[in-house]
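Format notes (please read before filing issues)

Several people have asked whether sequences and structure tokens are stored in separate files. They are not. Every record keeps both together, in the order shown below: the sequence lines, then the token lines. Line labels are part of the format and must not be stripped during preprocessing.
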Amino acid sequence: MHQGNGFLTVRQRRLAWLGFLLAALQAPVSAWLVTDDSWLFSLCVALMVATVIIADDAGRRRPADARTGD
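Then the structure lines:
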């Protein structure tokens, strides 16, 4: 049984992980340095990137011969 392909290439996947880590680390640092709630934007970006990575994982773990809703 072959695994399916995700919609991200290997390079895009690595960049997504890097973007997730940078945004996730930037949120608490900016919350500590800035008095307003602008750090929530970094948190939202990190969550959106994490959602894309999880969706790509789900596509990669699906068997290649599985049907998609047909």
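For reference, the curators noted about this record: The chain has one domain: 10-61. Residues 6 and 22 are 23 Å apart (CA to CA).
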